[in-house]
Amino acid sequence: MAFGFAAAAAMPKPCLSIKANQSSSLGLSDRADDHVSRSKKNFVFIINPKGANGRTGKEWKKLLPYLRTRLGGHCNICEYITLAPSHGVDITREAIREGADAVIAVGGDGTLHEVINGFFCAGQPVTALERGPGYSTTLGLIPLGTGSDFARTFCWRNDPHEAIERIKRGFKSKVDVGIITAHTGEQHFFINVADIHLSAKAGYYASKYKGFGNLCYVFGALRAFIGHENRNMKVKINGGDWEVFHKVTAICIGNAKYFGGGMKITPTADPSNGKLEVVILQDFKWYDFVLKLHKLYSGSHLSEKNVCLRSVKSIEVVEEMSKGDIYIQSDGEHLGFLPANCSILPAAINFFC
């Protein structure tokens, strides 16, 4: 999913509701089949059946009877299958407009990423058309994907049955959402980690090897190292003065802690503290990643002398001598290339925890 960053592919109009052969309305208010009652809450489940090399779709079918047993008594289970990239964004927006009580992402970080972006339109939160101003739709997650890195921040196992029990309990907390603003002014939202340069390039190539499971991250990293060079970058934090960071290997901007299939890249991040944690890796060579990989996975890399940590409300990043080829991604989705500005939207969404 790329949008208006330098040299990025064009996106559809951000609020255009493209339903991929579904009607423009989800019909939540008047559905009346065996599992739907007007007197119960509407929980919309968005599933990417191709996630995790097709495993998500298969596991979802097995999970449905248990889901109906545990949740069917107090909510309508409204199931929607994504049929194309960004389809989850459109379904989420329509569900919220029609007053859905909850939208639950079923899959990995890519599906969650689409659902998060569906909570917003043209830079503003999507609202229910016939509900009061204080009403909000709750976000839920059933991790069934390749990485499921966001769930790791909460120490959740990749167990869909446990996720259903969390949803059934109904405990909620507010979570922050990160915003990436392109030079065009277009905005994109993320809930986990946004990153720049080598790690973003590795993520881009990892997406080509999803059929290999978590090995896709290894293959992506190996491919990204081909032709890689560290670059000088200018960084502006919280609207202050520009700082130059020399020989930058990667910049990781965490609302949560993990990315890349379990790498604890921003270990101090907390998705409910109103801040982004920024980790800047400088002058890393390929052998540094081999020798220090265990530290990146354990989160102990912050003690390295060529690793810088900053806690920010906003960060702007440009290349000192721009070549237009520095990759950007968020939640594992390729967005384009520098420049970019990241900021935090505190307590943006209710989340089943």
TrEMBL record:
Residues 37-184 form the DAGKc domain. Signal peptide: none annotated. The keyword Kinase applies. Gene3D superfamilies: 2.60.200.40, Probable inorganic polyphosphate/atp-NAD kinase, domain 1. InterPro entries: ATP-NAD_kinase_N, Diacylglycerol/lipid_kinase, Diacylglycerol_kinase_cat_dom, Lipid_Phosphate_FormReg, NAD/diacylglycerol_kinase_sf, YegS/DAGK_C. GO terms for cellular component: membrane. GO terms for molecular function: ATP binding; kinase activity. Pfam families: DAGK_cat, YegS_C. Keywords: ATP-binding, Kinase, Nucleotide-binding, Transferase. GO terms for biological process: phospholipid biosynthetic process; sphingolipid metabolic process. SUPFAM superfamilies: NAD kinase/diacylglycerol kinase-like (SSF111331). This is DAGKc domain-containing protein. It comes from Ensete ventricosum (Abyssinian banana). The lineage of its organism: Eukaryota, Viridiplantae, Streptophyta, Embryophyta, Tracheophyta.
